[in-house]
Amino acid sequence: MTPEPTRDAPETQPGTAHQPDGTDSSAEWNAEIADKNMIPDEGSKA
Question: Per residue in 12-26, pLDDT tens?
Fold first, then answer.
């Protein structure tokens, strides 16, 4: 059984990331400027 998500996750695309509050961090991810709160979206290369 899969638990229901607690919040809406952003749509995932390769090379995208977000912050815990849902703020888009894709530009920072693609520029390889990460912070400890950044969450790579599914399909993003880590």
Answer: 455 789 999 999 998
pLDDT of residue 19: 93
Q: Which residues pair with 39 in a beta bridge?
A: 18
User: What does the CA dihedral 19, 23, 28, 34 come to, rounded to 10 degrees?
Assistant: -10
For residue 40, what are the β-bridge partners? 17
Please tell me the number of Cα atoms within 13 Å of 3 on its side-chain side. Answer: 3
CA distance 37 to 23: 11
Please give the model's pTM, rounded to 2 decimal places.
0.54
Q: For the residues 18-46, what does the mean pLDDT come to?
A: 86
| Residue 15 and residue 41 in contact, taking contact as beta carbons nearer than 8 Å | no
